[in-house]
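Comment thread on ticket #2218

A.B. wrote:
> Attaching the input chain for the structure job we discussed in standup.
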Amino acid sequence: MSPIPPRRGRPTALLAALCALATTLVLAPGTSARPAAAPARVAGASATGPWSFSGSGFGHGVGMSQYGALAQAKAGRSAAQILGSYYSGTTYDQVTDTQTIRVNIVRGRSSQTIAGTSRASGGGTLTVTAGSSTMRAAAGAAVSLRRSGSSVVASCSSCSPTSVTGSSVRVTWDESRTDLNLSGKRYRHAPFVVTPTPGASTIEGVLHLRLSDEYLDQVREVPWGWPAAALQAQAAAARAYALRKVVAGVRAQCACHVQDGVTDQVYGPVPVGSAATGWSAWRAAVAAGGRSTTGYVPRYGGQVIEALYSSSSGGHTVNNEDVWGGTPVPYLRGVPDSWSTTADNPRRAWTSSVTSAQLADAFDLPDVASLDLSERTSAGSVRYARATSASGTTRALRGDEMRRALGLSSAAIHRPTDRISGSYPPDLAVASARAVPLGADTVVIASMYEEDIAHLVMARPLAGALQAPLLLSGNARLTGATRRELDRRGSAIRRAYVVAGGPMVGSEVIRELRARGITVTRVGLSDKDYTSAAVVDLMARTGRISRAAVATSSATLEASAFSAVAGTRHEPIVWASAWGVGWRTLAALDRAGVGTVRMLGSTRKVPPAVEDDLRAAGHNTQRFGASTSTEVAADLAHYFRRSYPGTRVVLARTSSGQTIDTVLAAGLGAPVLVVTTSAAWPTTGLVQRSPQWPEVTAFGSATRVGSGALSRVRDA
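C.D. wrote:
> Ran it. Output below, let me know if you need it in another format.
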């Protein structure tokens, strides 16, 4: 306990001189402090962005994963096994597939030009029919199709007649000798029918095809060079999807059953040249096991299923209702899908950057101050995303809606995480010290024991200001972890500051350090007031100090969280008792010219008597006074957000008997957030409004920062 000060107010010059004699100080380089504005508990302005999104998978994630099918096929699984793994409770059966399917390849265009391309002698001629009128176009002749009132007009300057008009236009050709050329793409199977778009002045162009081969043979949903089982699974899913669309009937808006594209299924033109590589393998997969009138599909309860699929999941497929709402479909249940996360999948991990303006536009907000992604599906993907503007307006989108609005790969969005392993404090100290370059010539040593936490907290800003590693020692000897780190750094380390009294770190340790050729200076004593003054004086000699912070034994965690930024800002942390600030500390603050002292904790933790002493001594005060250490840590991180250069936050575990982790984690130079058995709202709320920190590091083993706490922040 610090002695009761002899008087309130600024110390006399004699008292200041006596205090200076109580510490041994050595000049070292330092940095100057930067001014800061008043704190704000809640985000009152939009986040500046950009917002970084990371995740896994591509597409909606419901049903079959195409890259998962590839991995299963490589592992020797059959098409039936692949489909059964993704569509729960289904069978693999033959059904009739000779139905006609209408495929829209011209969607809502004002006009379209077509021509016939010869693929055999005498080919290339098109027959264009509108009502009772017919126009023949020679090979290569350009035929223009456009809307005229409620009719479609086909015109060709070299044809006879030069135009025909009707409620629809039907184009046919000799498929054995001619391909239809449309925008440089060649289509083999006729007819091609053009109709007016309902309610618009555009046209729709639709191919009428036999499903079994004319359509399925040219579906291009996966590379045709994939293994046979993967191709067969895709062919069966594509067949089932198409059959369901045919049964549902023609959609008036597109005059079709399906569109060519990701809205339904990709139907490609006739492959030519190198694009035709593998086409025979795909056509064989389409025909595999069937007959001329049948093909395989997955069925549930005897009915062809709605065989939804996407490129890949994020490691677990998604229930249908989690993406689109509605009634759960029994065969579209989410299932574990590690197959999607193999190295073959180029989207097994992805990161996308979105500007603040793009994010605001997606949610129809003027700006976005925070983004909450914590409502998750059973697969771990985002069920609902909620964006809140600076004015407090909140808007929600389903996860898949946000994915599409922002152009993200999937809704399986998770902040990247990593873990710094270790449970023994000296090991954790070394892990933190690895953030300091090997060229550092100074080391700061503190006690490894929990009861000496105050000295460790005071040592952290000193280490930061000196750009030195902070390592831990026992009372009688250096720890093995510390020795190994000193060995690794070798002769570069020439000076050590021991922030501890003799009972904490004994003379044997000093001798051991000196035996390594290191000049050792003890900073302070066991008394916290002496040590506070010594640290302030040393930091003042390394650079100007305009601000400092004060804590008590009740505010250790708050002080630990602040220590993550205190060193780079050149702000020492001093210690006070419940009765006030020690006279040595006040004298040192006066000598350093400190103007403002930050109160790290509520009035319950840093009592009014402490603030009274500081004000009486002529210092301004600023309090970070939330009721819990978790809240204060989040407030500090947000307030000093511009002082952190990195892109991550660090989670450090605390309990009633273990508070040392937080100050050790502070050496990583990132915001340190306090967690207990879980991660409370202040922590998750901070990352939701901090796009500059898209990554999360757990400091310590899973017994210290549990996987549940890490997951909650990862998915906040």
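A.B. wrote:
> Thanks. Noting for the ticket: The two ends are 42 Å apart (CA to CA).
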